[in-house]
Specification:
With about 375 residues, this protein is an alpha+beta fold. The chain folds into two domains: about 230 residues, P-loop containing nucleotide triphosphate hydrolases (Rossmann fold, 3-Layer(aba) Sandwich), CATH 3.40.50.300; about 130 residues, OB fold (Dihydrolipoamide Acetyltransferase, E2P). It is about 25% helix and about 35% strand. The protein is built from nine helices and 21 strands. Strand 20 and strand 21 form a beta hairpin. Helix 2 packs parallel to helix 4 and helix 3 crosses helix 4. The protein binds adenosine-5'-triphosphate (ATP) and magnesium ion. Adenosine-5'-triphosphate binds next to helix 1. Magnesium ion binds next to helix 1.
């Protein structure tokens, strides 16, 4: 069992508090992904779990044993960094086995682990090469191999794929997924990549300025963000936010988007006392581009990006508020067009002034 459990972890650098009380449990065998803006503390948190940084306060256990002050080598964790830092004068095999050699592991055991790791990572043809004779993706696999042979209870990855080109990224992402299936170890993985987060994670942790904003499955965070920060962070392109006046009518909350379209009417969320300004959230992929002459929200297009599989349309409402939508790859909409857009209410989110969620759409339930 290698459950990782953090209780009120803080970390100060000098007088600056970087981690502000992190409570988190990563279950045994779970693939957990940390996301958040640059500088929010993802790497610091990973390094605290690895033992490379000491937490300022709080407690940390791995596999049920308190590890708060345990040296890194005794935690049963292995970390893979963004920069893979292989020894240039050693072969792939020597790089992978270096740690075990230093620890004076028995020769047979070293061979067994090398054979297993190199088969798993498809490195067998390259074992005698030097790192300079490998592609970036192969080098990163060697770095992962170095972690695999340690047979850790917990793998920690800090943006391991961000130096790779798009195709290699996809390939290595799939390999890490397979590695997780084979080993069933607990994995904690930091990334900036939305696709990696959505596809690899059992659980995503959204961090912001040293705090956890929300923890959940990828689809949970996508459909049921707890606040505007998570709503805006998860999903690419980003969710649209429109400031809208709202009126309470009995047990309904009516939200007025634009004089040209009927207001949306939601069940009145608890705690709403009266009229006021709200934020309406809707993702670009959920807006529907109408045909010419249709009714709908009038949007003037400022830019159309044709990506082949889809067309991203960037537009403004009559009063200048910005709104973006994702249309079909064969859409003929052009810059300067005045188009009509449908807003499916089931895909709408409503946030209060403080950015907390009042309403999340119904899409998940409708699909279930
Ligand atoms: N050794 C250090 N001394 C002082 N400040 C540090 C140190 N390490 C990190 N920091 C600061 O802590 C904050 C969090 O850094 P961290 O590297 O954890 O961010 P991150 O979320 O991993 O960002 P990125 O996405 O850019 O990698 C940053 O403001 C950083 O400047
Ligand atoms: Mg980092």
């Amino acid at each position: 069992m290698a459950e990782v459990s953090l209780s009120r972890i803080t970390k100060n650098f000098g007088v600056v508090e970087i981690l502000k009380g992190i409570d988190l449990t990563v279950a045994d065998g779970e693939f957990c992904i940390f996301v958040g803006p640059s500088g929010c503390g993802k790497s610091t948190l990973l390094r605290v779990i690895a033992g490379l940084e000491e937490s300022t306060s709080g407690a940390l256990s791995i596999g049920g044993r308190d590890m708060t002050r345990t040296p890194p080598a005794n935690r049963g964790v292995a970390m893979v960094f963004q920069s893979y830092a292989l020894y240039p004068h050693m072969t792939v095999a020597e790089n992978i086995c270096f740690g075990m050699r230093m620890a004076k592991s028995p020769k047979a055991e070293i061979s067994r682990r090398l054979a297993r790791a190199s088969a798993m990572l498809q490195l067998e043809p390259y074992l005698d090469r030097k790192p300079s004779q490998l592609s970036g993706g192969q080098r990163q696999r060697v770095a992962i191999g170095r972690a695999v042979v340690r047979e850790p209870d917990v793998f920690l990855f800090d943006e391991p794929l961000s130096n790779l080109d798009a195709a290699l990224r996809v390939q290595t992402r799939i390999e890490i997924g397979k590695l997780h299936q084979d080993l069933k170890s607990t994995m904690i993985y930091v990334t900036h990549d939305q696709v990696e987060a959505m596809t690899m994670a059992d659980k995503i942790v959204v961090l912001n300025a040293g705090r956890i904003e929300q923890v959940g499955s990828p689809l949970d965070l996508y459909h049921r963000p707890r606040n505007m920060f998570v709503a805006g962070f998860i999903g690419s392109p980003k969710m649209n936010f429109l400031q809208v006046p709202g009126r309470v009518e009995g047990d309904r909350l009516e939200v007025h988007i634009d004089p040209a379209v009927a207001p949306l009417s939601f069940a009145r969320p608890a705690g709403i006392s009266g009229d006021g300004d709200f934020m309406l959230g809707i993702r670009p992929e959920h807006l529907v581009l109408g045909a010419t002459g249709d009714s709908g929200l009038p949007v003037t297009l400022r830019l159309a990006e044709r990506l082949g599989s889809e067309t991203m349309l960037y537009g403004t409402l009559a009063d200048g508020r910005e709104i973006n939508l994702r249309a079909d790859g064969l859409s003929t909409a052009r810059q300067g067009d005045l188009v009509k857009v449908q807003i499916p209410q089931a895909a709408c989110h409503v946030f209060d002034k403080a950015g907390n969620t009042l309403v999340n759409g119904d899409l998940l339930r409708m699909e279930a």
